[in-house]
Amino acid sequence: MSWRLLSALILALAGGMAQAADGKAIYDGNCAACHQPDGAGAVGLAPPLAGTLGKRVATPVGRQYVPAVVVTGMAGKLVSKGITYTGIMPSWAQFSDEELAAVVNYVLSQFNAAELPAGHQPYTAEVFAKLRANKPSGQELKAWRAESE
After folding, report:
1. What domains are there in the chain, each with its CATH number?
2. Nearest alpha-carbon partner for 101 in 117, 83, 124
3. How far apart are CA 102 and CA 93, in angstroms?
4. pLDDT of residue 149
């Protein structure tokens, strides 16, 4: 193997690790305050992310719902694992599409890996760009949530 090829391979791998690290950094700096560092959530305020999203993204509607909540935010009552939550999820649209993909992929891989469907594909920046261009309403989000449970 040539040194150039080896160098290119190392740089490519380092770039992938940087994306995962960025997702963790975004989560730790912005999401963990409510959803907790381990994704367990805060009773009554922020629903758990751990162990709840893998099955949801197994459906086409759920696969769209998860990134839509991150882009648009969500308010109102919802129930997760039998507990009612009344907090407000802010929109995180100030982050780039790449950053949003990184943080959602981090949450799925770190807190939901055991529940992810076979053949799960990580989210791409394009998914978030499309949602920004055609943001769903709060009513649509709630309907998508119900349909993906």
Report:
1. 21-147 (1.10.760.10)
2. 124
3. 13
4. 85
Please compute the mean of the pLDDT values over residues 97-101 and round it to a whole number: 97
User: Angle at the Cα of 148 (from 51 to 129), degrees rounded to 5?
Assistant: 90
Continuous H helices in 27-124: 32-35, 53-56, 60-72, 97-111
Rounded Cα distance between 64 and 16, Å, is: 24
pLDDT tens for each residue of 13-38: 444 444 444 999 999 999 999 999 99
Q: What is the pTM of this model?
A: 0.84
Model confidence at 116: pLDDT above 80? yes
17/55 Cα distance (integer angstroms): 25
List the one residue out of 85, 76, 91, 80 whose CA is nearest residue 136: 91
Can you give the pLDDT at residue 3?
A: 40
**Structure tokens given for 128:** 């978030």
